[in-house]
Specification:
With about 400 residues, the chain is mainly beta. The chain contains 1 helix and 34 strands.
């Protein structure tokens, strides 16, 4: 005790309290320093949180643009079939099924277009783009049925593959073709424009160019590559033509196209719809380059023609044409022009030459005379009659007719 302190102020418990308090404070401060050091040490040693990186591949999807008849979709991983609609998006591994008489058109994000024919089972295996390289990949599968395809004009790298049970076909950009798959897996691959490659499950590789095709057997063996006939050029009626008849049900509409050199016959299809799912006419083995349609009702019609060679290989249809039939007042129908420049008989062969309206139907005593797309005609026909005159009749697209009875000029 200090001499200056009052003895009455000194207490043992007071000294003990200050002694314990300073010691406790020191211990607490030390613990805080140690804890901070440990925390800093663990912070430096702890691994940094992983950085989230964006996916390198993103889906670019697919969608319906046309549905005709009963078309169904089964989502990936699900059991139920859903009725397809234009508003329904299509994703990876979705199944698409077209029933009898049904068709569907699907546009993929890469710009490819696929037209599914009736009774086809189809899968979108992949439709994606790499976010780094921008490369696009489209992978499709056809289990059974038929599909026409058109690959897009890509400005970025990419490829389109179509797989069947027996072959995988890779189509280059701006390539159109057709793939048919039987229930056995036998597959026909045809390229109409562009180029592609077919790789069979047995390892064979076949390069295909425009108007080439190949057939792959059910065991994966490829047959010989074949050349396909070229696509016929349609001439009449011109595309988007409106044809007026006073009585359409009794009128004749003439379809005409240019001949194809390698063709032994033609296939002609006519339908109300551009899908041709339920055609009004599907004439096969047709030999001529023009066909008459009779008794059509008013309305719009689509038509297309494919050439078939002697081996039965069918070429592409190419672009389709559309014409519209209208009912016109009788007073509005004017007959086509009919100019006969030559009518000469030499032996039993009659030479007839002249001009009428493009698309008109011309007969000589009831025998059909071919009219060229520009309206001219120049034919040699067998003539066994003793008559010295013949009746020429030209019926225009509007149903009106012009006829002339002309004398025959006999030459030696």
């Amino acid at each position: 005790m200090s001499p200056k302190e009052n003895p009455s102020d000194w207490r043992p418990d007071r000294i003990e309290w200050f002694t314990v308090s300073y010691r406790s404070l020191g211990l607490v401060a030390g613990a805080i320093v140690v804890a901070a050091a440990l925390a800093w040490w663990f912070f430096l040693r702890a691994p940094s949180a992983p950085t989230t990186t964006p996916p390198q591949t993103v889906s670019i999807g697919a969608r319906f643009t046309l549905i005709e008849g009963s078309v169904e979709v089964k989502r990936a991983g699900e059991l139920d079939w859903l009725t397809a609609s234009i508003a329904m998006p299509l994703r990876q591994n979705d199944l698409v099924r077209t029933r009898a008489g049904a068709t569907a058109q699907i546009v993929l994000g890469a710009g490819d277009v696929v037209n599914l024919r009736p009774e086809t089972l189809f899968t979108i295996v992949e439709s994606s783009q790499n976010t780094v390289s921008r490369q696009q990949r489209v992978a499709l599968s056809i289990t059974t049925g038929e599909a026409n395809f058109q690959t897009g004009a890509r400005s970025v790298p990419g490829e389109t593959t179509i797989t069947t049970p027996t072959v995988r076909t890779t189509a280059d950009r701006e390539t159109s073709g057709n793939i048919q798959v039987d229930d056995s897996g036998e597959t026909g691959v045809r390229i109409f424009n562009g180029s592609g490659r077919a790789e069979t499950k047995t390892g064979q590789r076949i390069d295909l160019r425009s108007n080439e095709g190949v057939r792959i057997e059910a065991d994966g063996t490829a047959g010989e590559k074949s050349s396909l006939p070229t696509i016929p050029v349609l001439t009449a009626p011109p595309n988007e033509t409106e044809v007026s008849y006073p009585d359409p049900s009794r009128a004749i509409t003439l379809l005409m196209w240019n001949p194809v050199t390698a063709a032994s016959s033609y296939r002609i299809m006519v339908d109300f719809s551009q899908s041709f799912a339920r055609p009004l006419y599907d004439r096969q083995g047709f030999k001529a380059t023009q066909m008459e349609l009779r008794g059509l009702e008013t309305g719009s019609y689509y038509w297309r023609v494919a050439a078939v060679d002697e081996g039965g290989d069918e070429g592409g249809f190419g672009g389709l044409y559309r014409f519209t039939l209208l009912k016109a007042p009788a007073s509005a129908a004017s007959p086509p022009p009919l100019q006969v420049e030559t009518l000469e008989l030499r032996g039993n062969i009659l030479h007839v030459r002249g001009r009428t309206a493009p698309g008109a139907t011309l007969t000589l005593d009831g025998v059909r005379i071919e009219v060229q797309p520009d309206g001219t005609f120049n034919e040699f026909v067998a003539f066994e009659s003793d008559a010295n005159t013949v009746l020429l009749r030209s019926t225009g697209l509007n149903g009106a007719a012009a006829q002339q009875r002309r004398p025959i000029v006999v030459t030696n």
